[in-house]
Design a protein that fits this description.
alpha+beta; Aminopeptidase; 29% strand
Length: 168
């Protein structure tokens, strides 16, 4: 198993994670958006299969959030203007590979890349929108904290300072 950027010829067709929008994104938009620099997409593939079969994927972009959203998790005085964060827009594991630790492995990879990015450009933390109670449990186990009002999807945040301290 290998984690790498999505590439031409990857087999995304059989990917089914239970959330149709995430399946459709991988099948139709992931590579085009990756190549265009709109959202970088990383895949976990079994390279012994030809073509390489995708078991899991995630996307990374940047976005901004209102300081009030994350203020309780950041020390010191904050600007009043929106804060930059690394954003995990899509995150999924295919049904047949769930509960084997692949999601955890993929998240550690995403957090490592986020730390590297934050060494070069300002980003106060990693942000995502959790789609379900199950995924909120999964993300909370990895250090993400629900922010804002309880809502669905639930915004969650992991401060970069925490990530630097404890590691991905
Ligand atoms: C959420 C998801 C990414 C987890 O991937 P995974 O590879 O199954 O996760 P892991 O095996 O690394 O799980 C690690 C731990 O997270 C928690 N966890 C994972 N899936 C869970 C679930 N469905 N319900 C409750 N807790 C869960 C458990 O504590 C688990 O440890 P355990 O298996 O020893 O009990 C995967 O279920 C998925 O793709 N779901 C559908 C798409 C989705 O909801 N994506 C998130 C969009 S925001």
């Amino acid at each position: 198993m290998l984690i790498r950027p999505i590439a031409a010829g990857d087999d995304e067709g059989g990917f089914t994670c239970g959330v149709p929008t995430l399946d459709r994104y991988l099948a139709k938009h992931a590579r085009g958006n990756h190549d265009a620099g709109i959202a970088r997409c990383y895949v976990l593939v079994d390279e012994t299969a030809v073509p390489a079969r995708v078991s899991s994927y995630y996307t990374l972009t940047t976005r901004t959030v209102a300081p009030t959203m994350v203020a309780s998790l950041l020390p010191g005085r904050l600007p009043t203007y929106p804060l930059s964060v690394i954003y995990i827009g899509m995150f999924a594991v295919t049904n047949t590979e769930k509960r084997r630790g692949l999601g955890t492995t993929m998240m550690r990879d995403a957090l490592e890349r986020s730390l590297m990015a934050a060494d070069q450009v300002g980003a106060t933390g990693v942000f995502l929108d959790s789609l379900s109670d199950d995924s909120t449990t999964f993300y909370a186990r990895l250090g993400f904290v629900p922010v804002g009002e309880p809502m669905s999807p639930q915004p969650m945040f992991l401060p970069m300072a925490t990530l630097r301290q404890v590691g991905p």
